[in-house]
Design goal:
By secondary structure, the chain is of the alpha/beta class. It is 44% helix and 7% strand. Helix 3 (90-100) links the parallel strand 1 (77-83) and strand 2. Helix 9 (213-222) crosses helix 10 (234-293). The termini are far apart. Residues 319-362 have a biased composition (Low complexity).
Length: 369
């Protein structure tokens, strides 16, 4: 493979071209011992000073096209990404994921600037440097963390950590008196751009906290923090605690209202069920009443049957008109020609028929006399 030559460096000392001269036999015999990407996630990523690359093999310069084809095959492509990483969030993680997946076999080194450099060139941070280091160590895409990373990358730093490419978003980063601190990296062909995540940044998170300061101060007072820890004055402390009490009362009233609504809804549902059941029962009762006492009801038929039976039992059997008269004995009174036994014929259909029958029977008795 081609190796770097001393005259193929830019003014900044970063290699710009490749040499076509083959490496010496001694260099070919040396194997790469660069650290490999993490295969398991059971432990945090190591720090660079704990596992620095001690590989003595020549570290040839790669092009982006070669790296994307999987070259070289005997070592991973070492990609570097740096930043402050204050209040580590999903935007940071997505940028590191892009840097990690730029090439088939990448070893991601992440540089984190110290508090002194950050406060000098950017501003005060919420998390201190130790907290920011640890946040990066526990990101799954990171293979190695470099503490106290430089604000501007130097050739010595790139050579020390054997960095092949630098990953960052393509927006010019003006700082430390420079229009773009990555300008010399871009000119050397070592810069690989990543995409920013819209809608999330450390500045946005801090803006939310500052905007809703009273809410978070009351929240932490309620959680047990003292006014001194929150840097809150005595008057503001009393105001926040009073507001917390008011909010609690509002919450209680809201809960009571919700429970009352639930109770009213349950009562309405039960009353609706009761009314529905009452309507069903009333319909059933009215139907049964009409079936029993209506014009064609069973009670009327039963009453008519019983009336007919009573009239039949009370009515005498009528003698036939053509029957011969019996001779009367002078010593005896004439015997009646009717019997008090119930007639087997069909009973009279109405009380009028029954009365007519009795009248005819009376007329027959008068004729006999």
């Amino acid at each position: 493979m081609p190796v770097l030559t001393t005259d193929a460096e830019s003014e900044t000392g970063i290699p710009k071209s490749l040499s076509n001269e083959p490496p010496s036999e001694t260099m070919e015999e040396i194997e790469h011992t660069c650290p490999q990407p993490r295969l398991t996630l059971t432990a945090p990523a190591p720090f660079a000073d704990e596992t620095s690359c001690q590989c003595q093999a020549p570290h040839e310069k790669l092009t982006i096209a070669q790296a994307r084809l999987g070259t070289p095959v005997d070592r991973p492509v070492r990609v570097y990404a740096d930043g402050i990483f204050d209040l580590f969030h999903s935007g940071h993680a997505r940028a590191l994921m892009q840097a990690k997946t730029l090439f088939p076999n990448s070893y991601l080194l992440v540089g984190v600037c110290s508090d002194d450099l950050t406060h000098k060139f950017k501003g005060f941070t919420v998390m201190n440097e130790a907290e920011r280091y640890e946040a990066l160590r526990h990101c799954r895409y990171v293979d190695e963390v470099i503490r106290d990373a430089p604000w501007t990358l130097t050739p010595e730093f790139l050579e020390k950590h054997k960095i092949d490419f630098v990953a960052h978003d393509d927006i010019p980063y003006s700082s430390a008196g420079s229009d773009d601190v990555y300008k010399h990296i871009k000119e050397a062909g070592m810069f690989v751009p990543t995409q920013r995540t819209e809608g999330i940044s450390t500045s946005d998170i801090i803006t939310r906290i500052v905007r809703d300061y009273d809410v978070y101060a009351r929240r932490n007072l309620q959680r047990g923090y003292t006014a001194k820890e929150l840097n809150v004055s005595f008057i503001n402390e009393k105001k926040y605690r009073f507001q917390n009490q008011v909010d609690k009362m509002k919450e209680k009233v809201k809960n009571v209202e919700e429970r009352s609504k639930e109770f009213v809804n349950r009562v309405e549902e039960k009353s609706h069920d009761l009314i529905q059941k009452w309507e069903e029962k009333s319909r059933e009762f009215i139907g049964n009443f009409l079936e029993l006492f209506g014009p064609d009801g069973a009670w009327k038929q039963m009453f008519q049957e019983r009336s007919s039976r009573m009239l039949q039992a009370l009515s005498p059997k009528q003698s036939p008109v053509s029957s011969p008269t019996r001779s009367r004995s002078p010593s005896r009174s004439p015997s009646p020609t009717f019997s008090w036994l119930p007639n087997k014929a069909s009973p009279p259909s109405s009380p009028k028929a029954a009365s007519a029958s009795i009248s005819s029977m009376s007329e027959g008795d008068e004729d006999e006399k």
